[in-house]
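Repro:
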Amino acid sequence: MRDRMPYDAFDRLPKTDIEVPGGIIHAAFAPGDFMLPREKLLDWIRMSARAVTTYYGRFPVNSLRLLLVPVDGGRIRGGTTWGYRGAAIRIPLGRDSSEDVLHRDWVMVHEMVHTALPDMPDRYAWLSEGLAVYVEPVARVQAGDLTAQEIWQAMMRDMPKGLPQAGDQGLDNTGTWGRKYWGGAMFCLLADIEIRKATNNGLGLQDAMRGVLAAGGNHEQDWPIERILATADKAVGVDVLTRLHNEMGPKPVTPDLAALWRDLGLKPVGENLEFDDTAPLAAIRKAITAPRAR
């Protein structure tokens, strides 16, 4: 079954255990060879786990099964995360993948972020995917694996893909690729900024999502979206996420992204991006990518 994690087969494979703050990753390799030595692949897993742990303050689950499957080519072919028999990730990895491919990879972190959110009905996949799209680069900046310029430049380029198109019926009712991934990421960015505005930049989405995890809400649990958002709101003491969902869930909302980038102090200069630290939301922009204490 392509859409299911092969738990039984996984449990028969030899595994390498990787200890991470708050848990253990059981890494297994499907039959076949990779060009890179196994230790390099384990380093990639460790690097990705470090970024996720940096963002959440601990690894999201106590135990993760991680299956790498060799496939043709030299790139990572996406990934899938499950929680129905314990947290598990399967990633098809090109046999010829180089160290550079692994170092630049976003897929592993994206999938690990999925383990930090309870499972929800498909109509709310925008929150699961949007959170992974948004948190992954922020976590990698906080861990020192990307620069802030790189991720803000990418957000400016890609975030418009999440804007509602003709016929849109809100995030809860519009299952297009753009709305699911980038519409969800836009929701997360707006929520992060609004939480920081409401808390004098003392708290952000990071603290809200740590609150969900602290309340036992990871991917091995099934929670309704209302419980996830209420738990996150309680952690930061403001009802930003619930209110934003009430606005953006049932109907299309089109934020003025150009004004938002300007307020954050993002100034494209040719192929590059410069920061304007006099912009009204510059301090919030800096706080989003600054590492937090555990």
